[in-house]
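Predicting holo structure, DAU bound.
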Amino acid sequence: MILVTGGAGFIGSNFVLDWLAQSNEPVINLDKLTYAGNLENLAALQGDMRHIFVQGDICDFDLVASLLQQYQPSAIVHFAAESHVDRSIHGPGEFMRANIDGTFTLLEAARGYWNTLEADDKANFRFHHVSTDEVYGSLQPDDAPFLETSVYQPNSPYSASKAASDHLVRAWHHTYGLPVTTSNCSNNYGPYHFPEKLIPLIIANALAGKQLPIYGDGQQIRDWLYVKDHCSAIRRILEAGRVGEVYNVGGWNEKPNIDIVNVIVGLLDELRPDPVGSYARLISYVTDRPGHDRRYAIDAQKIEHELGWRPAETFETGIRKTVEWYLSNQDWVANVTSGAYRNWLDQNYSDRL
Ligand code: NAD
Ligand code: DAU
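Done. Tokens:
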């Protein structure tokens, strides 16, 4: 049995679905169900006894400790976090609580539980921390991609809180011997991606005939990875990753934002043509994100050489699957773009447009 935190969010739910499709090892899924958590993502597991969902907060030490005691998991895979950079600019407090206090509480509960295990179980136990490439800061156009040894230079409240959580995980290994691994991954995309993030926002807005907001000049570069490839990388690290190590995970796929938007527009023009004309007419340049990082790029050679992991999808195959998924799951989009979501759009975009 494994304990997953944040398993009702975008990446966590993909991870739980893939895990149970490939293994019979049950999952305890601890998720607070914030605005980003959605049990609809896990509808396919209804009635599946291998999935035990617990609504709760990773900051609740007693709850986490009792779950560990009751279910005796062999690993914790820690996704739970506040994850959206723009929200962290509007309200950083919750990011500090969930990402820093939450990781601290989880580490302390894990340490207490791990200390009670027999020698073999103790040696085999893993705490896997899911982190981001944003902790390394922003690259110049000619800089080499981020390595696991790159200096930490987080620039947003979100990335600073993730950097802090990475440091805690590292310290709990060095000081207490907790068997941890960490992955720092680039931008994910794919099914169940909440439409506050660039790719699902562009798809949802285009289909609704709304503007496609491009921050600044649209030349900021991200490395994009299909979410199922991130999940397979984490499974591989759990299987064979070295204790105490950090693995950078990426798609070898750097692209400026405006190119991403143009690819989506092209796919929508092909798959769901709008009689009014190309969706490109909706592209709209808006005020930039404060402190916007210019470029991220991941050197994922370590995980490839040590663990034999490489992404299975190219951007072309992954983005087509993604657009097709959104076209086939318009009910999911309608359900998540509720009243609270519209309030967020007002807060984030009304001053920009
Ligand atoms: P998400 O925002 O879609 O989901 C986060 C989940 O965590 C939600 O289900 C939410 O309810 C839950 N959660 C939040 N606070 C909680 C708390 N205090 N207790 C319990 N549950 C809580 O995020 P995501 O995009 O799926 O990201 C998952 C993890 O991967 C995060 O740690 C993020 O930093 C990291 N990451 C994300 C990306 C990306 O591109 N999305 C890339 C690299 C790393
Ligand atoms: O790099 C990994 C990170 O990727 C993760 O750690 C974060 O959790 C995840 O949210 C993502 O962060 P970004 O800030 O890169 O993702 P986002 O989808 O918000 O934005 C991607 C790029 O698109 C970024 O340069 C900002 C830009 N953008 C975003 C939105 C929402 C726009 O131009 N317009 C928009 O409306």
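The radius of gyration is 20 Å.
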